[in-house]
Amino acid sequence: SLEAVMVVFGNVSAANLPYQNVFLEALSSELMGHSSFRVPISSQALKTRTRRRTAGPLQVVCVDIPRPELENTVNFLEAASLSASFRSAPRPAKPLKVVIAGAGLAGLSTAKYLADAGHQPLLLEARDVLGGKIAAWKDEDGDWYETGLHIFFGAYPNVQNLFGELGINDRLQWKEHSMIFAMPSKPGEFSRFDFPDVLPAPLNGIWAILRNNEMLTWPEKIKFAIGLLPAMVGGQAYVEAQDGLSVEEWMRKQAIPDRVTDEVFIAMSKALNFINPNELSMQCILIALNRFLQEKHGSKMAFLDGNPPERLCMPIVEHIRSLGGEVRLNSRIRKIELEDDGTVKNFLLTDGTTIQGDAYVFATPVDILKLLLPDSWKEIPYFKKLEKLVGVPVINVHIWFDRKLKNTYDHLLFSRSNLLSVYADMSLTCKEYYDPNRSMLELVFAPAEEWISRTDSDIIDATMKELEKLFPDEIAADQSKAKILKYHVVKTPRSVYKTIPDCEPCRPLQRSPIQGFYLAGDYTKQKYLASMEGAVLSGKFCSQSIVQDYELLAASGRRNLSETTVST
Fold it and tell me: For the whole model, what pTM was predicted?
């Protein structure tokens, strides 16, 4: 879940806007608000850029690591078994028409596995782009800019299975098994945690920690290890019981020095949920550590080889359509209309059309769901608990420079700055974005709550000041060294849900108490919290619930059809 995944829509709440539909319009189209700035480029530079684009296939010189052996891990096999259960399920006598709102990974996953089970999903996306929190856009130069910096971990078994099922494993670019942190006290220098392939888990992780003497002293390592013992011994039950404590509170309770939090867990907290350790639930950290330490390749990272809508989302859409499902863009839901008994009658779209089905799924961010909940549902405990789940703001920054930066790696980097979370030189890490002459840095600006309403130029100025510390020999805040050719800023005012203490009891199961109405999304109940893996798994759980409810839903559909015929 360390993926820097997000979108924004500023400092706006429903109370600030006179009409709900105005807010929805903002949230769905601005929820991924994006803007850009372009610096005039010389004609020679433009010719160079044009030549690069029209010279034929790119020659990629970066070397990726071979795909790790994930297929025999317990979690991968468990995920594969769940996937197979849809393909082997008895074919329904009459497929269910399932209407799904939201074509992010949760909605796409739900539709994919329902189609695998023989049903007919109709996936509705409000905007003109697939992906939700992994959406991306192409600018006038043909360059892509994304909602977030997305990392695919070895510890994402359902995502890894999905790539295999679609036949696109080769679209993941695996990097060396390391975690690389910038050193604020030594501008321009980095500290590495290298996981040796010859050792099994958890020994490879322990070795990586023990070998790094730049960030933690030996006494700090020992105190941290002793503090972690209860989590190792207590297992999942202990991990879940820590939901009520923030990372900072838990560390102090375990007598772990504050410097451990400062050196390691500020960066980790911001990478996992875009917030600082004084806010993040310790359960989130322990779940991540558990996955990384228990699986040999759990913390190994891969980048997608290009933009997510085309390289990941479209293969899912093609699969859905090949099995008789349907995906529609520009289909924004205005209202959930109800029958007299409180069940869903149809989805009313903003263009006035109504969409009916045998079952309905909301796979949007939790903030949009709360805005569209019918009044008669709001006091039902299942829905009322959602009030505590609120999307966290995040900003994704892309900067194209006039030169190739040298002080970087073909990897994800933890900035350890006050304003930035993780970053990468995408001209190195991603084949589609590869450029031998110029760097494009993609950076996650977090925590972003105080910045979401600031201007793009303010955000770029602040980013450049931080980059000056990371690239002291190459970047100056005043651009007296590397110069900005252009930039894009993508704001997501409400991204993944904010994983603060005591949120876990508020996360809903995928099957709601309203017959025929289901939820999917990383905020729903599943063990991978706010992540791409969590979104995909939530879609599988949602599909599983619908398949299990087939007889009930089919009977209800026949009854409604009969009543409609009689009334006609």
Answer: 0.89
